[in-house]
């Protein structure tokens, strides 16, 4: 890749008068040695799987194998359609769709890890709800995925995307940054605005620990996906309004790496701290152990 930082990415795009999605498509084709059409076709299939996961969690009875989670996406989707959501109808739909994909993941269904299975709901939640809201076609959404991929590439190569390495800030935080940035571009923002959107999003999740109850990607992971989708929408709106990330986004990524590297082992996906070690968290873990015997 010709870029290793978000600043380099934005500068390349602006110098060559390209969107981040267009540049990433070209870079991917060059690095893989495959025609760009093949990469686009693969990404199109990924988006199809994302939309199917959204649909499945909203319309079918999806329950995790542990029995801890399931059915919340339907509740939020119904509330978004028939209630009066405080965040508004479309953010509530994004929340429901993110919950849906995460519940499908917990039930061992088919999802696309963007960037991980633990944060798989945020990007589909934002993209599918935005597609419905603005009437975009699938080709445009695929361009959004390429933009998100470029952002994820930079984060992964300069920090963490794994909860075991950097806490939940690395999984949920990265997904929020990817979703916020690609939405800025989809809505006509400049490459520089995209990068600011990423920084604004990531700053909101610095220090977020990974504390899965019973070691399962369910509690609190699924809820964090739902809320993460709403955070991504907010960060995108900030960037589109002209707000800047005062601390450059690449420096924010560096801070995420620093925090993740010093985070206690108990707060990095071990289920030895945080919510996993509350009285209720320990009780649920013990119940599941008894059921498995």
UniProtKB/TrEMBL annotation:
EC number assigned by the record: 4.3.1.17
Where is each Serine dehydratase-like alpha subunit domain found? 17-276
KW Cytoplasm (keyword) present: no
Domain of life here? Bacteria
From the UniProt record, give the pathway where this protein acts.
Carbohydrate biosynthesis; gluconeogenesis
Q: Name one GO molecular function term.
A: 4 iron, 4 sulfur cluster binding
Protein known as: L-serine dehydratase
Q: Which gene encodes it?
A: sdaAA
